[in-house]
Amino acid sequence: MEHLLEILEDLDGFANSVLSSITTRIVQLVDIDPFDYESGNKWDEYFAPGGNVTIIQLAGYDQDETKKLMAEFILWDLWYYTQNGTKDKPIPVILDEAQNLDFSDGSPSAKILREGRKFGWSAWFATQTFNNFSREELSILDNAGTKVYFNPAESEVRVLASRIGNATPEELRMLQKGHCLVLGQFNQEDQTLSNPRYHVVKVPAMSTR
Question: Which of 33-37, 102-106, 155-159 holds the top average pLDDT?
Answer without folding.
Answer: 102-106
